[in-house]
Amino acid sequence: MIGALYIIILILTWILSAVFAISGVGAANTLIPIYYSFGIPFSIAAAAGLLLNVFSLSSATANNAKHSFILWKIGVIFLIPAVAMAPVGAMVGVHTPRKYLLIIFVVFLSYTLFNLISGRKKGKKDAVLTGISGAITGIFIGALAGFLGGLLGVGGGMIILPVLTFMESDYKKIAGTSAFIALFSSASGFLSYLAILRGVNYLLWIVVLIGGIAGGFTGSFLMHRFDSRKVRLLIIIIILFVTVKTAYSVSMMFH
Known about the structure:
This protein has helices at 2-23, 28-37, 42-66, 72-92, 98-118, 131-152, 157-164, 171-196, 202-223, 228-253. The protein is mainly alpha-helical. The protein has one domain (2-16, 25-253). α2 packs antiparallel against α3 (42-66), α3 (42-66) packs antiparallel against α8 and α4 (72-92) runs parallel beside α8. The longest helix has 26 residues, at 171-196. Residues 121-127 have low confidence and may be disordered.
């Protein structure tokens, strides 16, 4: 029975990691509730989800770098504060009332969806991050993404991804840069959970690692064979899915 459970976890991890890797975010935000529904304690599930992001997004990032799908300048501006704040989010997550943060998150994602679906006019790339004010904006957004990613166990990719849609018109580069940032913020959050966890399930981690690595390579392989419009469509579907799921979670918190 236990063996069958881990086979199911492996298959789900592989498939969902591949789908989310195409859009440039980790699958932890979807897989953590699934792991939890299988009877795995939330803290263990959250740590496993962040570990999954590390390995699925590392394989995806390696392939994206080969194809020049990473905006390194923007990525580094976001990355440093995201990595710094992810442990803070992980450590205070247990004591933070999440419903109000999630409401803001839903509003933000809804606004992003509106712009993606309606089609924004192309402006100057990287315009948001020019000058001192732009750098400060990037640092603030990166810090927020890292904190919320560590807080919710999702690695910050779903915070960064919508922001990048306002800076870049090539959706493959949006996905590749988001994956690069989420990789390191996930690693930072995972190390924080590792320091405070008790009763680590190493077998679960091995299963997650195998599924995550396979999913990362699969997703990256498929993304390079999609045109930018298909990647954009998948990003819209992923953001819509996460928005609806998060909104439902918030509604349950008020009952």
